[in-house]
């Protein structure tokens, strides 16, 4: 069989197929970026993602060192392994960036998120909403005769599960902080 006559479904590859065999599997990664706390830094980081068509699933930013004027940006994104490597390399080239850590690959980490959910319900649905909140350890932070606002913290999957259960009971609004994450151990 010559290179010009390869049967369909054959495992042989032509020398003319020069496209590299990159993985198409999308992976979720949590990336922590330590940056100078100055105007425009967040815009440059976000611009890196939007300019290349990368999606940000979650983004949190806060100053973590007042004396050193440093902020921490925690980004949850998805992409192929090659895209994740490219994102980290490009983040590291931004002048105001001090450190880039991929918490997903550097070891065990802890992720938490805070959410507030408003549930408008009456009667049995109201009782069921309170029962589920107790199971999920959500706190009631506001209550009226027709609604509750619950506060819940935990892994994003826990918050998703709580919201899914509250939807049929009258979930009307959700506010989420985004993921905050730290490496475990030393």
TrEMBL record:
Keyword Amino-acid biosynthesis annotated: yes
Domain ACT: 30-105
GO molecular function: acetolactate synthase activity
Reactions listed under catalytic activity: 2 pyruvate + H(+) = (2S)-2-acetolactate + CO2
Pathway: Amino-acid biosynthesis; L-isoleucine biosynthesis; L-isoleucine from 2-oxobutanoate: step 1/4; Amino-acid biosynthesis; L-valine biosynthesis; L-valine from pyruvate: step 1/4
Keyword Acyltransferase found: no
Keyword terms of this UniProt record: Amino-acid biosynthesis, Branched-chain amino acid biosynthesis, Transferase
EC number, UniProt record: 2.2.1.6
Source superkingdom: Bacteria
Role description: Catalyzes the conversion of 2 pyruvate molecules into acetolactate in the first common step of the biosynthetic pathway of the branched-amino acids such as leucine, isoleucine, and valine.
Binding partners and assembly: Dimer of large and small chains.
Alphabetical list of PANTHER family matching this protein: ACETOLACTATE SYNTHASE SMALL SUBUNIT, ACETOLACTATE SYNTHASE SMALL SUBUNIT 1, CHLOROPLASTIC
Family membership: Belongs to the acetolactate synthase small subunit family.
Protein's name according to its UniProt entry: Acetolactate synthase small subunit
Organism: Ruegeria spongiae
Gene responsible for this protein: ilvN
